[in-house]
Amino acid sequence: MKNKYWIAFSSIEQIDSSFILKLYEYFGNIETAFNTTADALKNIEGLSVKKAENFLRLRDKVDIDRTFTEVETRGINFITYESDNYPKMLKQISNPPAVLYYKGKLSECNLERTLAVVGSRKASSYGREDLRKIISGLNNTDICIVSGLAAGIDTVAHTSAIENNLKTIGVIASGFDYTYPASNKTLYQNIENGYGAVLTEYYPTFEPVKFRFPQRNRIVSGLSYGTLVTEASLKSGALITANLTLEQGRELMCVPGMISNPNTQGIYKLLKNGATLVTESEDILNALNWEIKKGQTSEQLVLPMLTCEEEVIYKNLEVEDRGIDELLGLTKMKLDDLLMNLTTMELKGIIKQCDGDRYKKV
């Protein structure tokens, strides 16, 4: 059974996919590659002698059947590089993963309509809202949102996809024995339980160590036809993914932000260098030349009847969220009247409280 040799290779933490695939392509058979000899490895052009020696030493410690059983007993699915259902876009990149482990329903994700979304872990409320608005414009389509399940923009991308009836793929930088960040445990479960798939190239026991996050990024962009960047500083993982997107020959798009925000410096650098400007979902469809058909449209939000005072408040929340003091000045209401109207509007589902005493429209 060839699969167990792919898993056995993948379980050796000190080698990477490029090493595994170099051996596979040379021998043409994964079992032969795994059981190779030191003399045979010397004939492979460009193969590091140190890596080859390291592999042989570690290989002899691998219990092939046990490593395979441990994946199966954890309820983890996998796709190997030679599988028929290996994602075609990912196979085209320079360093594709040798094995993809996943939980969830990857087969229900349309890999012909994949959009990567990346950005700052410390995203501003404006950046979050802009992304929610853009993704909501793709609702009820067969587009699949790909991101890294990190805090900030990644989390917004996945949750917005779920809220808008889109499938989503979360690519993680560890094996399935770890949930990182721990705050996203529920999001992991939601994706696995019907909203898409959580995917990784790492054997279940591999920890989320720092160097694995940039490696993970090549899969996020590699799975996707284009990458949308929402807030990124000049030195960020999102900018690494943006550069990978260009290297992979995929479409790079950016959501502009406030120029005073340090997290937009990377965005404006990318825009100046030719990235596509995105302010609405239609910009994404045009950039990727996608013609999509929406499924049954969800029931649109219909505003209930507003009182005169509620209309004044609502109009002042049209563009951005505001605090109590701002609303007092803009509406000229008494504090008690303002608070009573805000409470009523929250109960009606028209507005919601955010960031302490600030309010925004739903």
How would you characterize the overall build of this protein?
The structure is a single chain. The chain has 17 helices and twelve strands. It is α/β, with parallel strands linked by helices. The strands form two sheets. It has a nine-stranded mixed sheet with strand order 1-2-6-5-4-3-7-8-9, with helices on both faces. The protein starts with a helix and ends with a strand. Residues 296-301 have low confidence and may be disordered.
Number of strands: 12
Question: The CATH topology of the largest domain is what?
Answer: Rossmann fold
Arithmetic mean of pLDDT: 92
Binned strand content = 5-15%
Distance between the termini: 54 Å
Query: What class do helices, strands and sheet pairing give?
Result: alpha/beta
How many domain regions?
3
The coarse overall form would be: elongated
Strands of the biggest beta sheet: in what spatial order?
A: 1-2-6-5-4-3-7-8-9
Low-confidence stretches: 296-301
Oligomer: single chain
Q: Helix tally?
A: 17
Radius of gyration: 24 Å
- Which CATH class of the largest domain applies here? Alpha Beta
Helix content: 40-55%
Please trace the helix and strand order, writing H or E for each element. Answer: HHHHHHEHEEHEHEHEHEHEHEHHEHHEE
CATH architecture of the largest domain: 3-Layer(aba) Sandwich
Largest sheet: 9 strands, mixed
